[in-house]
Amino acid sequence: MADMKHENVLNRLKTAEGHLRGIQRMVEEDAYCIDIIRQIQAVQSALNKVSSILLENHLNTCLITAVRGEDPQERERVLREIVDVYEAMSKV
């Protein structure tokens, strides 16, 4: 993964981690439920963005390498991974 994307992913994860700690505090302090839900949505959004960045990187590196490669089993494996990830995301 390119350094800029790697740094971007790490920063987003650290931000999500900070929000998650904030949510824990809010629950401990019995904050207003809607405020907690909004913070949860912010964390989910941040994690979705991280997933998108990682998936884009995977498609542009690992998938392309496998598709251009000579091993048909590797192509099938990588394509199956993409389908599995998509199906898992659809269940959420």
UniProtKB/TrEMBL annotation:
Q: Which Gene3D superfamilies match?
A: Metal-sensitive repressor, helix protomer
Q: Where is the signal peptide?
A: none
Per the record, the GO terms for biological process are:
negative regulation of DNA-templated transcription
Q: Name one GO molecular function term.
A: metal ion binding
**Superkingdom of origin organism:** Bacteria
- Indicate what this protein is called per its UniProt record: Metal-sensing transcriptional repressor
Source organism of the structure = Bellilinea caldifistulae
